[in-house]
């Protein structure tokens, strides 16, 4: 591949807060510092976030809490504080907007920034360093950043030197960097797709780059074009600060299949909190709730329910998801994935304040 010419090179930064929820809890409670911490429920729930001390024991997000406790008997569970996380996230975003209006938040703890036309005589790397320093000063937390010429590589770069790191992938190094990565590291390639690729002998970026576009589209449909491009370090997606979303969703794949309905109900609470938080932050309301269920044998179903009016609250959305889950939950293979999507979106009425999230022992 020919590296982008200087006139076409974009300067994209991906900023990712380090172990965000857990780090906020450690910041605010000195007794938690240096200890393995998990944000989430202790009994039937799942881990929503884990500190780096906990990750050394193999504790990861979406892991059942009881499994996490077996891996790390000294693990400390804390309930989430969504109001605090949102407030800190807003502090961080305010810093971003001082450097560029082109900020595309992906969640409370990460965002893309396009600095191409806002360098003002500085390099994107220098600005990323400054942003990280200001985040630490303003919040007491650390952030990792990746700098590159497109979104795909910037996101990969931000994960290279976590925590509290900065990594740069220049245009001339992009394809080679991608070729050396295992497929499982690629953003946009999940475990199931990675397994399918591995069945075709595609284990690394270099293996993926050797495939023809026809081969990839024949086996992976429309996504084949995306895979062909990223294997060559190509990603033309723009940073879009005002994306018009058709739906807002969240899903989790569980390390151990869910076989207990109360545990599945708690897992749905985690997802409902995420979806409702994202909808509230985006100023959107929706009329249709869709439940996604993947069983232990990889069969997948969806069930949906629509209202003649917008869903009024997080609890109403959760209730609809639970009603949809009940008739399809019992299965001898257990449930390995759950998802909730809110669609039929419209702008929230400006004369009504956004409803507060119901607090639950998950994030």
From TrEMBL:
Binds 2 magnesium ions per subunit. It catalyses: DNA(n) + a 2'-deoxyribonucleoside 5'-triphosphate = DNA(n+1) + diphosphate. Keywords: Cytoplasm, DNA damage, DNA repair, DNA replication, DNA-binding, DNA-directed DNA polymerase, Magnesium, Metal-binding, Mutator protein, Nucleotidyltransferase, Transferase. Pfam families: IMS (PF00817), IMS_C (PF11799), IMS_HHH (PF11798). InterPro entries: DNA/RNA_pol_sf, DNA_pol_Y-fam_lit_finger_sf, DNA_pol_Y-fam_little_finger, DNA_polymerase-Y, DNApol_IV, PolY_HhH_motif, Rev_trsase/Diguanyl_cyclase, UmuC. GO terms for cellular component: cytosol. GO terms for biological process: DNA repair; DNA-templated DNA replication; error-prone translesion synthesis; SOS response. This is DNA polymerase IV. It comes from Paracoccus kondratievae.
